[in-house]
Structure formats: C-alpha cells, structure tokens
Amino acid sequence: MPVAKVKYTDGMQFVGEAGSGHAIVMDGDAEVGGNNTGLRPMELLLIGVGGCSGMDVVSILKKKRENITGLEVLVNGKKADEHPKKYTDIDIEFVVKGKNLSEEAVKKAVQLSMDKYCSVKATIEGTAKVNFTYKIINE
Amino acid sequence: MPVAKVKYTDGMQFVGEAGSGHAIVMDGDAEVGGNNTGLRPMELLLIGVGGCSGMDVVSILKKKRENITGLEVLVNGKKADEHPKKYTDIDIEFVVKGKNLSEEAVKKAVQLSMDKYCSVKATIEGTAKVNFTYKIINE
What we know:
2 copies of one chain form a homodimer. By secondary structure, the first copy, chain A, is of the alpha+beta class. Chain A folds into 2 domains: about 1-40; about 40-139, K homology (KH) domain (GMP Synthetase, Chain A, domain 3, 2-Layer Sandwich). In chain A, about 30% of the residues lie in helices and about 40% in strands. Chain A has 3 helices and 6 strands, in the order βββαββααβ. Chain A has helices at about 40-65, 105-115, 120-125, and strands at about 5-10, 15-20, 25, 65-80, 85-100, 130-139. In chain A, β1 (about 5-10) and β2 form a beta hairpin. Chains A and B meet through β1, β2, β3, α1 and β4 of A and β1, β2, β3, α1 and β4 of B. β1 (about 5-10) of chain A pairs antiparallel with β4 (about 65-80) of chain B, so a sheet runs across the interface.
C-alpha cells in the first residue's frame, strides 16, 4: 500500500517521504510565507504525470526493440482562478529521440500510456482534461 | 502557468524539474526495470496532497495565533487492481502538535483545507475518495 509521511519543518517548508524510502523538500514562495527551498505541491502533480507516462513510453518502446536514445516530457498545467484552484487542463508533449524510430510505434506507445497504463494521469483526469502530443527526433 | 520538464536518464530513472527551479529524481523498482534511485511518480501524488494540505493547516493556525509546534501529515493510498491502477481511496491523518491548541481551531483549519483550499486534493478527488482525520497533541 503506497504511503507517505509529510513533516513540517519551518516557514512553509515540509519534507515528504514515501514507502520507496526517498524524500523531497516542498516549500512555498514568499507570497505565502515560504522561502522557495523546494517544489510546490502542485508541481508534483505535473512532474508525476510526466514521470509516470515517460516510464510507460520508454518501457513500451524498449520492448518493441525501438532504438530510443532520449525522452523529454513537457507538462503544462492550467489552474482554475477560484479556490481550490485545481488543475482544469494539463497538456503533455512527448519529445522522443532515437535512431530510425517508427512513428507508428511511438504513436502507439504514447496512446497506450495515456489510455491504459499511466496511473497518475488516470487519477487526475477525473478533474483535469489531459491533452497530449508527441514529436519524434530521429538522430 | 505551472510547468514541468521531465527528462529520461537511464533504466527507468527520470529527473523532473518545475517552474519553481527545483528538481527531483524519479525511478521504478527492479520489477519494472528500475534501480530505485528515486520516488515513484504515484508517490508524488500522496506527498503532494500532504504538503498542500499541511501548508494550509499551518497557515490557517498561524493566522489564528494558535501555538503550533509541529505537524505531520500521514497519507495512505489504495489503488485499483486493474490498469491504469489509479488511486481509488486516499486517507489523510493530520497530527498537529502545539501548546494549548484549540480543538475547534484545528478542526476548522483541517476542514477549510479539505473543503476549500487544497488544490492537490481538489484535483485528485475527481477520481479518488479522500477521507481525513486529525489528532491533536498538546505538549
């Protein structure tokens, strides 16, 4: 069962640790009494959906023996103006680098992640509309 | 506009960075071809909801001049068995430490975060049922 413990330190700084044994620092900006020593909690959702879908795409392309040499996942989030300022729209762009990458294979890998495998996307899309595109750079 | 860039390094390791300028390492366990060098993307949702709501509670209690000396937010997530294995239930426990803390003030702070302010909770609760409790430790 995934668990996390988030502990207050000072100002608006919190240290979060999770079942895998790793920890991160979160903080707010000066406007909310923070000192910007770490990530904003809302940024973790964008990084999480990028990491989750990125792992899917790499895993699927490797299984298909595609020669993937790099991947960047760019994520933009749009928040509601009113509290609780949840994400209403999230745009994800996959930039896949490789040698002789098949466009069909990349398209299919991205679609499988978005439609079937990405747990983070599946959790947030009850609220946020998630759009995605991909770009292939054959080196 | 909140943005994040997530970059593939090796194995299942990704480095995510966001608009605030901070970065984190994500990785999978050996079962998925990872080396457990960093947090799982799904753990970021739990840490994020703990940090987000923790900042609300600290902020509200400080505004009310309550003498809060510590806060731990414990988060448990339950995932669906089938892909995409999204969170179906998330339990949050706030353990608030302080001196002469008013139970009414703590209860109100937690409720305001959960019902009105916490952007991460508002984003994930379209999918996951979020339950919360609190405990007060007056030192």
